[in-house]
Inverse folding.
């Protein structure tokens, strides 16, 4: 009789090591943060550490030591032999429903910024528990793949009441005069957005949160998206088109590019 004390798994017909990491990441209960590391530094490190601590407290009932996270990331970068990388820190349940948190650090090649202006297609979806960067991302990936197949760059998540929430993998901001407007709807406080808010405050640029309905996005002068890979102007949301240069979007991009980097 076969011994299945260690799970057996095949991927595309090939046997693979079905260790605890594979089981944990397929289990669906966990949260994470994603950061672009350059020369061993990252923007908004304090926000990443606060996110991990708050989500671990909510999901597992205990906090997460920021110093320990930094040690693990430094160790992973050293193990990979790199100082530039896309780093993901996962906190997940390794041993079943009642298990405590286990931390996994994944180091991948660095990701380039979005570059070109982004075209957004609205979709009828809001992430469950949107305040958490949890690993249950099926819905947003499903819609992102669909809109990209239609020639768009990003999916714009919109609630059943027509309120704009966020992008599938970005936060979205709008420009109204000399003010940045962030949609006030269930969404993740992305690290790039938090860094931008801090830089806007330092530069004396006004910003606010307010409800934004899909049928009124055309009244805004410009729009942009941001995530750990950077900031990009939005050229189109559905049939509404926006200018992609000049105005406050240029200042937003400049402020993000000039934001400081923190040593891990």
């Amino acid at each position: 009789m076969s011994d299945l004390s260690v799970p057996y798994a095949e991927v595309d017909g090939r046997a693979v090591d079905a260790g605890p990491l594979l089981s944990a990441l397929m289990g669906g209960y966990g949260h994470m943060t994603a950061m672009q590391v350059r020369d061993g530094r990252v923007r908004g490190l304090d926000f990443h550490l606060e996110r991990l601590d708050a989500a671990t407290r909510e999901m597992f009932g205990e906090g997460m030591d920021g110093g320990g996270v930094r040690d693990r990331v430094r160790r992973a970068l050293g193990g990979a032999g790199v100082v530039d990388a896309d780093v993901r820190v996962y906190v997940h349940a390794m041993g079943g429903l009642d298990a405590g948190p286990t931390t996994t650090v994944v180091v991948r090649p660095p990701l380039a910024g979005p570059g070109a202006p982004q075209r957004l297609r609205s979709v009828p979806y809001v992430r469950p528990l949107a305040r958490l960067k949890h690993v249950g991302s099926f819905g947003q990936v499903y819609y992102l793949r669909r809109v990209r197949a239609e020639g768009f760059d990003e999916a714009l998540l919109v609630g059943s009441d027509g309120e704009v929430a966020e992008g599938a993998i970005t936060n979205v901001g709008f420009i109204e005069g000399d003010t940045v407007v962030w949609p006030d709807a269930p969404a993740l406080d992305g690290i790039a957005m938090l860094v931008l808010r801090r830089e806007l405050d330092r530069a004396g640029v006004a910003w606010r949160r307010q409800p934004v309905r899909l049928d009124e996005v055309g009244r805004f002068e410009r729009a942009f998206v941001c995530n750990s890979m950077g900031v990009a102007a939005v050229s189109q949301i559905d049939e509404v088109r926006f200018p992609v240069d000049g105005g406050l979007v240029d200042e937003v991009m400049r402020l993000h590019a000039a934001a400081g980097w923190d040593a891990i």
Summary: The longest helix spans residues 45-60. The mean pLDDT is 92. The helical segments are 20-27, 45-60, 66-80, 138-149, 191-203, 247-258. DSSP finds six helices and 16 strands in the chain.
